Amino acid sequence: MSNRFIAAAAMSSSFIFSLICCFAQAQPTTPSIAPMPPIAKKIPKTAENFGDKRTDDYFWLREKSNPEVVDYLKAENAYTQTVLGPMKDFQAQLYQDMLSRIKETDENVPYKKGDYFYYTRTEMGKQYSIYARKKGSLTAPEEIMLDANELAKGKPFFAIGTMDVSPDGKLVAYSTDITGFRQYTLSFKDLGSGKTLDDKIERVTSIAWANDNKTVFYVTEDATTKRSDKFFRHKLGEKNDPMLFEEKDELYGIGVETTRSQGYIILTSASSETTEQQLLDANKPDGKFAVYMKRKDNIKYGIDHHGKDFFIVINDKGRNSRLVKAPEGKADKAKWVEIIPHRADVKLDGVDMFKNYFVAIEKSGGLPKLRVFDLKGESKGGAKKAKPHDITFPEAAYEASPGQNAEYDSAQYRFNYSSLVTPNSVFDYDINTRARDLKKQQEVLGGYKPEDYQAERIMVKAADGAMIPVSLVYKKSLKRAGPQPLLLYGYGSYGISMPLGMRSSRLALIDRGMIYAIAHIRGGGEMGKAWHDNGKMMKKKNTFTDFINVAEYLVANKYTSPNQLAIQGGSAGGLLMGAVTNMRPDLFKAVVSQVPFVDVMNTMLDATLPLTVGEYLEWGNPNEKPAYQYMRSYSPYDNLAKGAYPAMLVETSLNDSQVMYWEPAKYVAKLRTLKTDNNVLLLKTNLDAGHGGASGRYDYLKEIAITYSFVLSQMGIVK
Asked: What is the pTM (predicted TM-score) of this model?
């Protein structure tokens, strides 16, 4: 079979590719003749499920090793470069605007662990971070542990996955990915001699040191499905590591960690709805892991260690979870003492456990909460002399999260705070005095003043009466007398909440007169576990209709108009983009769809693909007829139809391991044959990256500049 793509005029693939490259190189700044997009050839492949026949003309684009597939992606890139060619100067200006906002040579706030203060820093002109430490005090000489710039030399992509220093501070274990496929190799470095050890382990996804400083427990992933499924013990210098556990249930993945107390190593088996944990005394690395409580469908729990007790977050009494205390050893519910009850309106995400206190990490009213519980005066019955108190925050809408807290015996709790107008701020909070010390606020250069910007939090009624939070930010000088250009972002999956932090790169849009908005739609986690439950499986369409309802509200209330409304989403948010564009193409002027999950049926019916089986609990199992029919009704690729569509920029990466490149490639190829409008349709593929795009910080800004040039130009803003 000859896998080639053809142009409408039956041109050869090599000719059309040359033609596009010629346009990219030889056309004047404003081409008088519009370039011709590549048209992928059709090789029909038919599948049938439950009497429903689906014909996929572009299934052949999955053949990554076929040179003509890459030729097609390159041709699409060349076409995109040609169409956006007249905006090269604008892209350069956007890049410089964003670059001018960041402090290129910078250092994060050091945190203490053992005898050392650890931190990362960046240097002007260098793409990656430098990982360093100082012994004893911040005035001590610097020790560079890892320089990612040196490790990345000669590599188009580079990322550090896990990085963990041994308990005695003498060794560092770190994993690296050089393709973007999130396939990590674990290495070890002697921090005294600076030498890298011979020990190397492939496909490692998580690690934990034992307290003997020579034993490392690690998890590896399956080569085909990328499911973390095997657990090993490694002693430095030795080979033939024994496998201690294999998770055979395809719905589950595993991960390993050490408690902050360094008392236990915990191996967790988890699906999206159920967990099971095995524990080992961290001082006995040759011992056997013991299951704490056997898995039970729809019961999730997580253990932390304190003294002679376990503190357990568990959802046995309700979806939002509660906290109980139990003596060490296997689970005995008769001995459990409830510390925080289940609450219908507050989701307990977890606890940060320390020697004399713990911090409950909660979500209420769509916003994060940090509650401090004093343990110094605790009695045997679980009561405390001091009542819990909240760490309060000054703004109506904000983001707050735990910071780097490596020390178990500490009275200082570090947290991060930001909002849509406040740059990320690192605080140390004194548990005893309740005083907070601002250690650093991220500098935003170029004269940025938070008071020049307005953040709003509004609630929009969905079609079924649910109230959807929406966050907006814009420049105060923006005249709100009528509709304005607006970029609406959405995700709405996996119970993930969209953060409300300030990003200086967004100023490139906002300072040019755009409103930036985030729709906190169902499927996410902003309003508790029920918010997620009502936007997944057989209720997934709530995610899409919520987003449409938000867009309609913003139009009806004159924030924007359909001709000034751009939308953006990535990964599962790319599914959102595809679904809402099929449902209401008239509502949006432009769409940015990044690494989009759009080929739902083909992907979810192929259990050999990475992550598929584990996703059954989010989307449904299409091998079951009701789930198949429901997913079939919204799958963006399968529901494309002849008609007019908004302008669209679709972005992907060749080495994406989460959403394979062929999903967006097939989506664009099919849409080209169906759209009846003259709006631009672009596919941009990063041939050297994965799910997160470019790895270097400068390259990443250049990618954002291209995306923003597309959005702004569709709004008529080109300078």
From this structure: 0.92
